[in-house]
Amino acid sequence: MSSNNTLNNTLNNANTDYVPPKVWQPVEGNGGKFANTNKPTAGARHQQTLPKGDNPLQLYSLNTPNGIKVNILLEELAELGIESAKYDAYKIDIMENDQFGSDFVEINPNSKIPALIDYSDANNPVKLFESGAILMYLAEKFNKFKPQNTQTQKYATYLSWVMWQMGSAPYLGGGFGHFFSYAPYPMQYPIDRFTMETKRQLDLLDKHLAHHEYMIGDGEDNYSVADMLIWPWYGRLALDESYERAGEFLQVDSYTHLQRWAKQISTRPAVQRAVNLELKPIK
């Protein structure tokens, strides 16, 4: 048996001795990539002044899957030449705790990226947080990348896949991704549990995309916010661009219809710009 396997077995066996206390208390330095960032409390931790550019939309984000979602829509709107959708984009470095600064928390009390302010009406700026809310707001504002008639099956399908992504992705990112890549040591039970669910979700998408070019139908007119929300998480995973070794571990090549969709969207100029979007520093 290799030394790594011995270590993993020892840690897994030790973990079976854990008995939850009657009242949970945070454990300082409990390991994992985000151990020094996460706390069981909300709110600002330090004073902060966020910069503001000259464009109508001000984005404060990071090029993670949730951040890339908004980048894609903004770049697709730019591709259409919509002047009122111009934006400035600033980097919120979550490893530096920028998300807990006072100005950012004023926009997003949940202290997660992305966040956006719409200054189209300078006297009544609109603050938004949650990637799904931002995309749906912008799609409605510019009447793009969504079904036009809200009283149709297509619109119902659109809403359903949008909500599916928002509800399902935490199992992929916070579940599978965390325990596979960021936990302090490998733990079989959570990895097995979240791998099972992740593969079920990949299989769901693969079966759906066997009969649909895009999430809500065939043809360019059916490329929508639903695709933009799902692709940064599941499309990039299918292309083996998320979590080192995850592609082989999950056998992503076996999901042929998901592969076709993921590759098709990855060739869009707006998507390519979105993935590599340069974010300005906030300080």
TrEMBL record:
Residues 151-283 form the GST C-terminal domain. Residues 35-50 have a biased composition (Polar residues). CDD domains: GST_N_Ure2p_like. InterPro entries: Glutathione-S-Trfase_C-like (IPR010987), Glutathione-S-Trfase_C_sf (IPR036282), Glutathione_S-Trfase (IPR040079), Glutathione_S-Trfase_N (IPR004045), Thioredoxin-like_sf (IPR036249). It holds the Pfam family GST_N. Residues 1-16 have a biased composition (Low complexity). It comes from the Bacteria. Residues 1-52 are annotated as: Disordered. Residues 55-146 form the GST N-terminal domain. SUPFAM superfamilies: GST C-terminal domain-like, Thioredoxin-like. PANTHER family: DISULFIDE-BOND OXIDOREDUCTASE YGHU, GLUTATHIONE S-TRANSFERASE-RELATED. This is Glutathione-dependent disulfide-bond oxidoreductase. The gene is yghU.
